[in-house]
Amino acid sequence: MDEMAFFNFSLEDYDFNSSDFLSFLPILNNTFDIPENDRLPEELPDKLKTIITVLYSIIIAGAFLGNSVVICVILANSAMRNVTNVFLISLAISDILIAVWNMPLMLMYHLSSEWTHGEPLCKTISFMTSVTVFASIVTLTAVSTERYYAVCHPLKARYIRTNKRAAIALVIIWTVAIAVSLPFTWLQRVELRLALTPDADVGIRIAELCAEKYPNATLDHLHTYIIFVFWYIVPMAIMFFTYGSIAHRLWMRKPIGDAQESPQNIDKLKRKIIKMLIIIVLVFGICWLPFFAIQIYRLHNSATYGYRIALTIIQLIGYSNSMMNPLIYGFMNQRFQQSLKAMFRKCKHVSAFGKNNGTLHNGHTINSITVESAV
């Protein structure tokens, strides 16, 4: 029997009650091969849709503008084209792709609660999301490692920290990101799902959903835990070690250069740097831990309406990392601020006489090279 012909009827012609629906459900499941507990999520409340739309719009605009400014500032100032900023350009590109490609499609998906763009785009958005998120996470890890060598092993850093090696590392990062994302194009597909209407009398509808479809539960569990370990646990552990080592080295290092600098100001500068390093780790952890946690929760619990709302909010939190990155790595860095002001002055055709000595605080240095490398 042709499936579409079978479903070519109007639900208005039928008066379903709960018992009718329960008896009719197995027929629909067998006909459309839809698991009983795998139905289309209920639509979000209108008020929540409005809030989600506003928040998505803010994050999309902030991520696009912030990361675009980071790229422009680095490219416009030859002094900014160092190893760290090579990685930051890659990070900004991946975050821009997330903002202009992934987030708008996910927003439309959340607002409609179903997929209306066909299977090719379903596979593409899954692939692109995986590539950009993986590249962003690994680049953040690479930045922390590069800074670790610059501060804690400066002799080795002279050999390791070169623009050529950074470019090679980025090629490897994006190649691996593409490779590990290919399984998502195989797993992701458009499926028919059942949905319950919110009316008092139980009704049904069938719509399309873009979702991962694993051959069996074991593969689903294995794939999810592998992603959690290598996309979150390992990067988080590396950042803890590298930035923790940098903070310890900065705190223990004695000041040089300005003998008149007071110990209070030196300690204040150290605390400022260490605070920034802590913020870097916390922002990454807070933005992405809920996302991976809810993926593990999904393995052991049935999807509910509460899960649907939680997933929508948690995905938004994860995407917000793309807006936070340029704020942390760019706008909180004084050298970046100086370069940004210089770029604006050039745009206004005004001569720039500002100082740019590469330190975090004019006239107050622990070690200008160390500070610049740390932040």
From TrEMBL:
It is a multi-pass membrane protein. Residues 66-329 form the G-protein coupled receptors family 1 profile domain. GO terms for cellular component: plasma membrane. Gene3D superfamilies: Rhodopsin 7-helix transmembrane proteins. Keywords: G-protein coupled receptor, Membrane, Receptor, Transducer, Transmembrane, Transmembrane helix. It is found in: Membrane. Signal peptide: none annotated. The chain crosses the membrane at residues 51-76, 83-104, 124-145, 166-186, 222-244, 276-297, 309-331. InterPro entries: GPCR_Rhodpsn (IPR000276), GPCR_Rhodpsn_7TM (IPR017452), NPY_rcpt (IPR000611). Belongs to the G-protein coupled receptor 1 family. This is G-protein coupled receptors family 1 profile domain-containing protein. It comes from Pinctada imbricata.
